[in-house]
Amino acid sequence: MLSLRNSVLTCARRSMKLGMITSLSANKHTLPELPYEYNALEPVISRDIMTLHHQKHHAAYVTNYNAALERLQAAISKNDISGQLNVQKDLIFNGGGHINHSIFWQNLTPDTTEPDAKLCAAINARFGSFENFKTALVATAVGVQGSGWAWLVYNKNNKSLDVTSTANQTPILPADGLTPLLGIDVWEHAYYLQYKNVRADYAKAIFDVINWKDVSERLSKATA
C-alpha cells in the first residue's frame, strides 16, 4: 500500500511506470470507454450501476486527478513545498481511483472465459484449488472495512499469487513488489443499488463476469 509519507513526486513517478501519467500538466487524462455496453454484465451487474459507476464515479476521479495535477504543477513552479505535499492525498485518492477502475473494467466481460494454464497452475500452487482461491478473495472483499478493494496480485518477491485489500482508492503499484491482476470494487456504489448491504452476494456473483483472459494476460506480463 502506498504510504502518505512518500513524497508527492514519488507518487507521480510510480504512476508514470503504469503509463497513467505522461506529463504533470500537458496531457489531460480522459475517461476510458468500456469494452462492452452498460447492460452487458446483467444480471450480475445492472445497467444502472454500470452507468453511474462509469459516467459519474470514475469520471469524477479523472476530473479531480487532472485538477490535482494542475495544483501540483503550480506548486512546483512556485517552489512551494507545502503545496506539493498538500496535494499528495488528492493525487493518491483520485489517481488511484482512475488506475483501479481502469483495471476493473478490463477485468470484467459478458463473455465466457477461463483462466489459462499458467494462471490455473499459479492458483493451484498458492491456494490448492480454484474454489479455495475464490473463497479467499470473497472473504477478503467482505472483510474490507468501509470502502476499498479486494485484489488478486502477483508478488514478485516470492514469485507467487496472493490476495490482499486496499483502503479507499489506494492503488497497488509495481514499485511495491505487487502487480494487480484482478480487482473487486467493494465501494457501496459498485453494488448497493442491486445487492443492498449483502456484499458477499455481490463478491460471489461477480465471478460470473470475470475476464479470465485479461487476468491471465496480466499474469503473463508480470512474470515476463
Automatic annotation (TrEMBL):
Residues 116-218 form the Manganese/iron superoxide dismutase C-terminal domain. One of its GO terms (molecular function) is superoxide dismutase activity. InterPro entries: Fe/Mn_Superoxide_Dismutase, Mn/Fe_SOD, Mn/Fe_SOD_BS, Mn/Fe_SOD_C, Mn/Fe_SOD_N, Mn/Fe_SOD_N_sf, SOD_C_sf. Belongs to the iron/manganese superoxide dismutase family. It comes from Franklinothrips vespiformis (Thrips). PANTHER family: SUPEROXIDE DISMUTASE 2 (PTHR11404), SUPEROXIDE DISMUTASE [MN], MITOCHONDRIAL (PTHR11404:SF6). Mn(2+) binds at H53, H101, D185, H189. Residues 28-108 form the Manganese/iron superoxide dismutase N-terminal domain. Keywords: Manganese, Metal-binding, Oxidoreductase. It catalyses: 2 superoxide + 2 H(+) = H2O2 + O2. This is Superoxide dismutase. Destroys superoxide anion radicals which are normally produced within the cells and which are toxic to biological systems. It comes from the Eukaryota. GO terms for cellular component: mitochondrion. It is an enzyme of class 1 (oxidoreductase). Transmembrane segments: none annotated. Its EC number is 1.15.1.1. PROSITE patterns: SOD_MN (PS00088). It holds the Pfam family Sod_Fe_N.
